[in-house]
Amino acid sequence: MELSRHNIVSNVHNSEKYFIVNVFSGNADLLTSGEANRIMNGSVIDDPEYISKGYVVDPVQEEKLFRRSYLDFLDSRDTDEVQLFFAPDYACNFNCAYCYQAGYEQPAREHVTEVADAFFSYVQANFSGRKKYITLFGGEPLMTDHQNREFLEFFVERCRLSGLDLAVVTNGYNLAELMPLLMRASIREVQVTLDGPETIHNARRPLKGGQGTFGSIVKGIDAALEAGLPVNLRVVLDRDNIGSLPAFATFAIGKGWTGSALFKTQLGRNYELHYCQSQQARLYSRIDLYKDLYDLIVQYPHLLQFHKPAYAVSKFLFENDELPAPLFDSCPGCKTEWAFDYTGRIYSCTATVGKPGEELGTFYPQVELKKDQVALWQQRDILSIKACSTCNLRLACGGGCASVALNREKNLHAPDCRPVKELLELGIALYSSVEK
Fold first, then answer.
1. Whole-number pLDDT of residue 281
2. How far apart, in whole angstroms, are the C-alpha atoms of residue 365 and residue 57?
C-alpha cells in the first residue's frame, strides 16, 4: 500500500488547519497539523480510515480504476451536449479598452445569409443525433443596422425551424430593442458584460463614438429577466476595476437581479490572449486575482450574494457536500464545442475563432476539414499531456486551455497549469468560514 498519487495536501489559508482533497476517490477532510504531517511522512499507510477514503491505495488497483474511470469519461463525453458557436461578424459598436479581437482581420461580409444556411446544413449533416444548441458570437452579433437585423431574423427563424435552442453572447447595448425578435426562438441564455458601476464601465466599454453604454445594457438585462430569459452577467476584471466590484455587487443586489433564479454571474480575467495589451501591469495572474477576490469578500461579505468564486473544487465541495467528478479534460475544443464564422471557416472554440491561421477547415463554399489537426484537438487531455502524467493536481485541473498552451508553448499538447493547490487553500478557508 502507498499514498494515492491524487492526494492534494496543504495548509488552509490564514489557519493552523490543513486539508486533504482527493478528486479521484471523491473524499476531502480538514486535518490538524499533526494529521497532515503523518500523511506527508507516510506514517498512515496502515491506517484503515485513510485506506477506506482512498488516501492510501494499492497502486496497481488504483491505476486499473483510473483507466476504467477514464474510459467511462470518454463514453460520457461522446454523448454530451455540443455547443456550436456562429460569428456573423467580427465588427462591433464598442471600443473596449481590452478587446482581444482588435487585431483580427475583418473580411467583408458577403452572402452571409447563404453562409448561415450552409452552417445549418453542416450542423444537420455532422451533428445529427447529438444534443446541441447554437450560440451567436462575435464581434457583436446584435447590431441593429438593416443588414444585421435582416440576418438576425433569418438566423432566429432557422433556429426555430430546426428545433435548436439559441444562446447569445452580446455586449447588451441593443438587447432591449431586439428582445421581441429574439423571443421568436427558444433562448437558452443571454450573456452580457458589465465591468462595474456606471462610471467604471463606461470608461472601459464605451461606444466607438465615446458615449457611455451602461444604461442601455442595464435596460436590456431588466428586459430579458422580465421576459423570463436566463441572463449570465460577466464582469471582466483587472487591477483597474476590481476595487469597484463591491459597489457593483450592491447595485446588482439593489436591482433585484441576484434574487432571480434566471440570473447568474461569472468573473472573467482580463489577460493577453492573442494580441498584446498596452498596459501589462494592470493584468492579473489567475492566482493573484483570486487572492485579491478573497480579501475583498472577507471585507465585503455581500459579494457572495453576487458571485461565489469556484476556487478550484472548493465551492462545489461546500455547496454539494461532495467533490465533482474527476476532470480528465478541461478543454472542450472539437469535442463539445466548435466555432464557425461568416466567412465559412471552422474553428475549435471561441478562443481561436477568427484568429488567422487557426481555422480547421471550411463549411462554405465547400466542406473541407483538416482531419489531422482536428484529431490533435480531440486527443488532448491529461493522458496526452506529458507534464500531467506525474501531477497530483491533474484531476482538478484537466490540463487547462489548449489555446493558451498552443500560443505560449507552440504545442497543443502542452499544459496550461492551473494553481489548484493555492486556489484550494483560499477557497476552503473562505467557504469553511462562511459555514460557521
1. 74
2. 56
E-assigned strands of 297-366? 337-341, 345-347, 361-362
Per CATH, the homologous superfamily of domain 81-309 is: Aldolase class I (3.20.20.70)
CA 233 distance to own-chain centroid:
13
Which residue ranges make up each domain of the chain?
2-75, 81-309
Instruction: Write the DSSP assignment of 166-188 as a string of letters.
Output: EEEEE-STTHHHHHHHHTTS-EE
Determine the Cα–Cα distance for residues 411 and 401; give it in Å rounded to an integer.
Answer: 12
| CA pair distance 305, 336, nearest whole angstrom | 31
C-alpha to C-alpha distance for 416 and 419, rounded to whole angstroms = 10
Which CA distances in Å does 316 have to 6, 22, 129, 313, 329? 18, 14, 31, 5, 18
pLDDT tens-digit readout, 80-107: 999 999 999 999 999 998 886 666 666 7
Cα(168)–Cα(152) distance, integer angstroms? 11
Which helix (H) or strand (E) segment holds residue 48: the answer is helix 48-52
Helix (H) or strand (E) holding 189: strand 187-193
Q: Do β-strands 56-57 and 27-31 pair in parallel, antiparallel, or remain unpaired?
A: unpaired
Q: Look at residue 276 and tell me whether its pLDDT is greater than 50.
A: no
> Closest by alpha carbon to 415, among 385, 393, 378, 389?
385
Instruction: Count how many residues are written for the chain.
Output: 436
pLDDT reading at 435 higher than 80: no
Tens digit of each residue's pLDDT (9 = 90 or more) over 178-231:
999 999 999 999 999 999 999 999 999 999 999 999 999 999 999 999 999 999
For residue 264, which amino acid is it?
Answer: K
The three cell numbers of residue 191 are 450573456
Cell of 347: 474553428
Residue 434: the pLDDT is: 81
Question: Would you state the cell numbers that stand for residue 20, as one nine-digit string?
Answer: 486533504
The percent of the chain in helix, strand and coil, each rounded to the nearest 5, is 40, 15, 45
